[in-house]
């Protein structure tokens, strides 16, 4: 075992009784499930699924929080020869109607043979399943009650995972990940990070999202190191609990989006860190959204005095269509920033872009022009990925309800903008979330970064860019606007958008449309704006706001 290639179920053959998964409970303790215990649950789950009529290649939908039941259902589906598909539980959505619309689309897309849920999700999922004419969901404990385990796993399915895109540009799309692609991605991450069973890891990421599922849970289980798992709301209530666990258990690896680091900075003070040490951390993988270099600096300033090495902060880039990981910074190297060539698209003074490392083994990343021609270092274009672990395609009508520019063929056209420098990738944002000003592209994510630096927290503002009524327009959407925010928005947008029309939209706190992983659904909000959905709360963003 170590950093070599491993099959998705090879760990069942040598499941450890000493190592396994630790789950944070509702108190301040942790519940341990050894890999030997988990193996027995997996084989019992596989037998239960087959007894319920699940056949080779059928889809098993999981609507569960992170827990031993989720892990057993995921690997149990594979052991039964079926294809697991993870769907966000209701906790991931603030509004019931948004959740019902989202989940109905996902269930209608994959048409699962069975849906396995937890107790808190059952009633909501039952209602949605009835409306979409898919089988009624079953609670995990009821599924496996009284069932004897299989002697061993059945032949794995050709499609090892259906995972959904974030849906930031419309409805989520189901992506078909083959067993070979999933294994290649896990192997690539294992070798990139130098994973061995001696390195424990921790995560609070939701397991319905590719970063929490592939990047953490599947990586941890197939490699065989101890994994410590909190619910997302555990982290939100007390990031201090997460940090204490890192110190107490000498955790080596963790992962989160930029938002998680920002949240730690807002909620944790040096006094909370007294007696803690973070010198065991060798890999803090940061991805899933634009990375703010100021946040990286501030996190190191906060945790560095307690042992965190700057080289442990590892910006990375990936996508659901690439299974997950595409590029990553080498542990210990230390992150850096660069700007595109002077005068090129995307170059905003003061918004240098964080490097997301180099391609993992057997992957190639190029940046291309609108015509598809490869661009030289420093020039901004679309990020294109080729090589192993690219998805086989989309499930069903891939284009329905989606405004995404991503497409799968011989290569993966990501729809993301970025540039290369000395082999390292620098990611700017979504191509569809930009506006051309005086011949240069300005990206919404760059403007949001500037607003965050002016004191507006993440998840409290979103910038929309487009052409409305024939005029280039920039919009600041505020969730629970506070004094000074309009002034900051006017200063930033007027500086970078030239003669574009400027608007402010005010929604209640939590009213910014986001994906289940928290990304702003900018193009969805833009479409709603143009349709008049925000008419009562829209006003010009004028110099008077300054």
The number of distinct β-strands equals 29
Helix content bin:
25-40%
Largest sheet: 5 strands, mixed
CA-CA gap between termini: 61 Å
Radius of gyration: 23 Å
Backbone shape: globular
Oligomer: single chain
Mean pLDDT metric = 87
Structure explained in plain terms:
The longest helix is centred in the N-terminal third of the chain and has 17 residues. The strands form eight sheets. A five-stranded mixed beta sheet has the order 11-12-13-14-17. Strands 18, 19, 21, 22 and 23 form a five-stranded antiparallel beta sheet that branches. It is built from 14 helices and 29 strands. Helix 1 crosses helix 2 and helix 6 crosses helix 7. The chain is α/β, with parallel strands linked by helices and 546 residues long.
Short précis:
The protein is built from 14 helices and 29 strands. The protein has 546 residues and is α/β, with parallel strands linked by helices.
Structure characteristics:
single chain; 546 residues; 14 helices; 5-stranded mixed β-sheet; 5-stranded antiparallel β-sheet; 25% strand
């Amino acid at each position: 075992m170590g950093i070599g290639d491993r099959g998705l179920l090879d760990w069942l053959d040598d499941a450890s009784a000493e190592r396994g998964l630790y789950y944070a409970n509702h108190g301040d303790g942790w519940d341990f499930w050894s890999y030997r215990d988990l193996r027995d649950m997996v084989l019992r789950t596989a037998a239960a699924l087959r007894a319920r009529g699940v056949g080779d290649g059928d889809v098993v939908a999981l609507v569960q929080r992170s827990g031993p039941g989720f892990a057993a259902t995921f690997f149990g589906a594979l052991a039964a020869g079926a294809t697991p598909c993870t769907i966000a539980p209701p906790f991931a959505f603030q509004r019931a109607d948004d959740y019902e619309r989202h989940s109905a689309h996902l269930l209608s897309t994959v048409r699962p043979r069975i849906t396995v849920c937890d107790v808190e999700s059952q009633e909501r999922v039952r209602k949605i399943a009835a409306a979409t004419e898919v089988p009624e969901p079953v609670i995990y404990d009821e599924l496996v009650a009284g069932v004897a385990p299989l002697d061993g796993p059945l032949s794995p399915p050709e499609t090892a995972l259906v995972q959904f895109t974030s849906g930031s540009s419309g409805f989520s799309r189901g992506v078909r990940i083959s067993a070979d692609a999933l294994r290649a991605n896990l192997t690539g991450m294992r070798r990139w990070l130098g994973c061995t069973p001696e390195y424990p890891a921790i995560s609070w990421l939701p397991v319905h999202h590719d970063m929490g599922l592939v990047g953490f849970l599947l990586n941890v289980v197939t490699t065989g190191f101890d994994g410590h798992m909190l619910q997302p709301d555990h982290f939100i209530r007390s990031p201090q609990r997460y940090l204490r666990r890192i110190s107490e258990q000498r955790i080596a690896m963790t992962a989160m989006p930029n938002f998680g680091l920002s949240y730690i900075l807002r909620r944790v003070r040096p006094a909370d860190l007294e007696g803690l040490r973070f010198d065991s951390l060798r890999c803090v993988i940061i991805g899933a959204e634009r990375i703010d270099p100021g946040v990286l600096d501030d996190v190191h300033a906060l945790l560095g005095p307690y042992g965190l090495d700057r080289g442990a902060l590892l910006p990375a880039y990936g996508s659901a269509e690439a299974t997950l990981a595409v590029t990553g910074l080498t542990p210990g190297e230390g992150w850096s920033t660069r700007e595109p060539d002077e005068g090129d698209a995307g170059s905003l003074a003061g918004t240098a872009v964080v490097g997301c490392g180099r391609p993992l083994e057997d992957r190639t990343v190029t940046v291309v022009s609108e015509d598809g021609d490869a661009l030289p270092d420093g020039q901004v274009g679309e990020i294109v990925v080729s090589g192993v672990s690219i998805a086989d395609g989309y499930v069903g009508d891939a284009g329905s309800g989606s405004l995404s520019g991503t497409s799968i063929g011989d290569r993966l056209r990501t729809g993301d903008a970025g540039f290369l420098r000395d082999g390292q990738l620098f990611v700017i944002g979504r191509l569809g979330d930009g506006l051309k000003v005086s011949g240069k592209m300005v990206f919404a994510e760059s403007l949001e970064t500037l607003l965050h630096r002016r004191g507006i927290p993440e998840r409290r503002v979103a910038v929309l860019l487009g052409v409305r009524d024939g005029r280039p327009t920039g919009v600041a959407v505020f969730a629970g606007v506070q004094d000074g925010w309009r002034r900051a928005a006017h200063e930033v947008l007027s500086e970078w958008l030239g003669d574009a029309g400027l608007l402010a939209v005010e929604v209640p706190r939590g009213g910014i449309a986001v994906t289940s992983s928290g990304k702003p659904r900018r193009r969805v909000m833009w479409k709603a704006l143009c349709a008049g959905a925000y008419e009562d709360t829209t006003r010009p963003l004028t110099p008077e706001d300054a």
